[in-house]
Each structure stands twice: as structure tokens, then as C-alpha cells.
Design goal:
By secondary structure, this protein is of the alpha+beta class. It has helices at 56-72, 100-103, 123-133, and strands at residues 11-18, 23-31, 45-48, 51-53, 74-80, 87-95, 111-115, 118-119, 140-146, 149-156. Strands 3, 4, 5, 6, 7, 8, 9 and 10 form an 8-stranded mixed beta sheet that branches. Strands 1-2 form a two-stranded antiparallel ribbon. The longest helix has 17 residues, at 56-72.
Length: 161
């Protein structure tokens, strides 16, 4: 005699935290549906403290309109190391609240230091690196410094769950 467990739908519940107040701001419910079907958000969603799932629509929008977003949602400049005077990253001066850049975790004061281990010192250098290596990497790790504290932010592509 063979016994089988019943199949049932479940949902994964992830607590959502407001980054400005560090207070719980509700939950994100992710339907599991059929086995083996990955969750794919349309907008980029924070899934961990420094981990993001890039949304399918955001990915398409960024591929087509990245120049528009850089010009209208983010003020940035090359950052100089105060001790050496050499350029050492890309400083985020401001980010429009609710923008695609904000959904990707960009914050005022962040200095982007490297992408997948490649140092970047200008926006054009960062864009060139990503475009030249988009077929090589599926996960992107960005080292960011803010107020002397370094952290690595990880971005998973829309196709990965």
C-alpha cells in the first residue's frame, strides 16, 4: 500500500520593513502555486536586508530607458577619496522617492565602489561594464559605502526565484 500526502497551496510571507523608520510595514505574500513555479515580481522587490529580486517590468524599462532614469531620478557625481584625492566610486547625491532607483535600494550618500568585483569610478564606466558582461553574470553584487560602512547589495535577475 502506498500513502501519499495531499497537495495544497501555500504562500510564503516575508515581513516588509520600512527602511526609513526600521518599523515593520506589513508583509509581502508570495503565492507558491504549483510546485517548481518561481515567483517573478514585475517591480523590483527587496527580499532581504541587502538583497533584491529585479522585477521583470523594471528590467525591461531599465534596458530601454536607463538614461532617462539617470537624468530624472538620481543626482550623482564621481566620488573622490578624501585622503588620496583619487576618484574611487559613484556618489548618489539624491534619489526621487518611489522611483525605480529607490526600489533598487539607491539612497542619498551611497558611494558605489564596485560591481561584481570590478571597481567603478563613473556612471559611464559602470554602464559599460554591465552592458559588456550582461551575458556573463546572472547575479550582480554591488559594493556600496555609506558613512564609512561598506556593504554588498545583491540583485537577482527576473528569471531566478
Amino acid at each position: 500500500e502506498t500513502l501519499r500526502t495531499e497537495e495544497f497551496d501555500t504562500e510564503l510571507v516575508i515581513p516588509r520593513v520600512d527602511p526609513d523608520s526600521a518599523q515593520r510595514a506589513g508583509v509581502i505574500a508570495i503565492p507558491q502555486g504549483r510546485r517548481g513555479v518561481a515567483w517573478r515580481p514585475t517591480q523590483t522587490t527587496q527580499i532581504g536586508s541587502d538583497t533584491y529580486q529585479i522585477g521583470s517590468q523594471d528590467s525591461a524599462d531599465l534596458a530601454e530607458n536607463y538614461a532617462h532614469y539617470l537624468a530624472n531620478e538620481v543626482r550623482h557625481r564621481r566620488h573622490r577619496d578624501p585622503q588620496t584625492g583619487k576618484f574611487d566610486g559613484i556618489e548618489i547625491q539624491s534619489v526621487t522617492s518611489g522611483s525605480i532607483a529607490a526600489r533598487h535600494g539607491a539612497a542619498e550618500g551611497d558611494v558605489i565602489k564596485s560591481i561584481n568585483g570590478h571597481p567603478v569610478t563613473s556612471v559611464s564606466e559602470a554602464i559599460t561594464f554591465v552592458k559588456n558582461h550582461e551575458d556573463e553574470y546572472s547575479v550582480w553584487e554591488v559594493v556600496i559605502s555609506n558613512r564609512g560602512v561598506d556593504r554588498t547589495v545583491t540583485y537577482y535577475p527576473p528569471s531566478d526565484g
